[in-house]
Amino acid sequence: AGLVAPRWFRTAAATGEQLTSELPLPAPFGVPLPIPAVLAPVARDADADRYEIVQRQAVAEILPGVQTPIWGYEGTFPGPTIESRGGRTTIVKHHNELPVPTVVHLHGGHTPPEHDGYATDLVLPAGSAPHAHGGHALMHDPAALISHGSRDYVYPLRQKAAMLWYHDHRMDFTGPAVYRGLAGLHLVRDDEEDALPLPRGERELPLVITDRAFAADGSLRYPSIDPSLTSVPGVEEPYVEGVFGDVILVNGAPWPVAEVSATRHRLRVLNASNARRYDLALDPPPPAGPVFTQIGADQGLLDAPRAHEHVPIAPAERYDLVVDFGAYPVGTEVTLVNRLGTGTTASVMRFRVTRRATDDSHIPARLAEIEPLDRAQATVTRDFSFRGGMVGGRHGWTISGEPYSPSRIDARPRLGDVEIWRFVADLHHPIHLHLVDFRVLSRGGQAPGPYDAGRKDTVDLRPGEAVEVIAKFDGYRGRFMFHCHNAEHEDMGMMANFETV
Ligand code: C2O
Ligand code: CU
Ligand code: CU
User: Fold this and answer.
1) Residue 284, preceding bond cis, omega within 30 degrees?
2) One of this protein's Pfam families, by short name (predicted)?
């Protein structure tokens, strides 16, 4: 059978109610916070750093004492972290040893189109018969670039320091592939950021937040009508809201605990969940000072820090936050809570403030230069609506009334032009543009909200609210995707193409 499915009939599932795990869940805050290993390059030459990653099946102990089959980059979930320098090319050879085709996208990377992980640019499983799967992709998209067994992804990374992430992006199957474990961090560093006195080393913590549910046998529950995707009996209707688990994982561990000194820490938070939004806060809040000081957004440092009492984060968004644990007495247990959660999803992880230590970090009033983008620079304004709709005779998701097709181009910005894109939505939809970074220009007809600052690549639309973003479409010519980053919405049609010309 073809592993590229007929559209929308495979990942389609359930109703958006939270899935319940079928085995006893561990008490929270018992597992130490793991930090994903930083991958060593296999070669560094004058102009590029080279890495190799094997995508393979593995068994992970996510819940203590429970064996969970996963799909992992290097067999781990999350995958290993890659660290690059801005402006220096990184080449990652991905080997596909999974039973299905894969596509790797570097989210937030300013990447040429042939390396961006277009949804039909499949890497077929090593050893699979050439036309077994590639033929289906080519049927959907004659322009698909099919590779056999492995491919080199080349990232020029002509961009500023930022926390990017890489994940699977196969047409119609991003949700189940990411849920099974295909996601990892890619940090870009540069001199501008290195020169700042920010917390670093063990005081810089990447936090990849996901939600999952587990079946009685320890496997991950992913509702689907495709038996190859762990189907849940009785679930046959197309999926509406997205897949929600009852276990919150940080860096792949359930409600972990991190011991921290009473000093400033930099928390680099990614919401890698398929569909869940969080609203993060600290319990107790610090006796003095802000709860969080935001220093960066999706695409890197802000111009100036911003204080927040809580931080909402939608799928694929990143917030770069500083927390001053020095404001707490030694011995305090500080819980990172989710104000949108109930029961098991109301807490995320815990910090245990264990000792005093000297802290010579501080947060400068000016963080980075950000090129201004002004309304007056825009040559074109485009409108897109994001709504539920009928797709292939079932409920799916659309952009301006259309479900995704690789062959339809909805916008052709001229290379180097500045454009304003106006979005409206029926529900929450975290909208992501490939290739570019953008600024939020307005929200609900008002100035951007408190969480809209800085250079972004994903913006959470709220029900009925119009959002304008402004972007310069520079870098590379070619076809790129934009889509909702609720992975189930994306798989069920809420994706489209633009082409820089
Ligand atoms: Cu994070 Cu088009 O993806
Ligand atoms: Cu992306
Ligand atoms: Cu959506």
Assistant:
1) yes
2) Cu-oxidase_3
Residues 208-229 have pLDDT tens digits of 999 999 999 999 998 775 555 5
Res 347 pLDDT > 60: yes
**What is the residue with the minimal CA distance to atom 1 of ligand 1?**
107
The verdict on residue 418 lying in a domain is yes
Whether residues 127 and 60 share a domain: the answer is yes
CB-ligand 1 contact for 266 (6 Å cutoff):
no
In this predicted structure, the answer to whether residue 247 has a pLDDT above a threshold of 70 is yes
Residue 322: burial class (beta carbons within 10 Å; 0-12, 13-18, 19+): buried
CB atoms < 10 A from the CB of 366, how many?
11
- The answer to whether 62 and 249 have CB atoms below 8 angstroms apart is yes
Mean pLDDT calculated for residue range 475-493: 95
Report the alpha-carbon distance of residue 183 to residue 47 in Å, rounded: 26
Whole-prediction pTM: 0.95
CA proximity to 478, closest of 418, 408, 415, 402: 415
Q: Count the domains in the chain.
A: 3
pLDDT computed for residue 163 by the predictor: 98
> Ligand 1 pocket, 443 CB below 6 A?
no
Computed over every residue of the chain, the mean pLDDT equals 92
Does any ligand 1 atom lie closer than 6 A to the CB of residue 178? no
Ligand 1 atom nearest residue 434's Cα? 2
Pocket lining: 481 vs ligand 1, CB cutoff 6 Å: yes
Q: What are phi and psi of 94, to 5 degrees?
A: -100, 130
Indicate whether residue 10 lines ligand 1 (CB < 6 A): no
Phi and psi (nearest 5°) for 442? Answer: -160, 160
Q: Which residue has the higher pLDDT, 129 or 476?
A: 476
Domain boundary among 355, 387, 412: 355
What's residue 390's pLDDT?
Answer: 76
Give residue for tokens 């894969």.
102
| 462 domain-assigned | yes
**CATH code, 234:** 2.60.40.420
User: Atom 3 of ligand 1 has which residue's CA nearest to it?
Assistant: 107
pLDDT in the model for residue 127: 82
Query: Which ligand places an atom closest to the C-alpha of 396?
Result: 3
Q: With DSSP H G I counted as helix, E B as strand and the rest as coil, what are the percentages for the chain, rounded to 5?
A: 10, 40, 50
pLDDT at 130 over 70: no
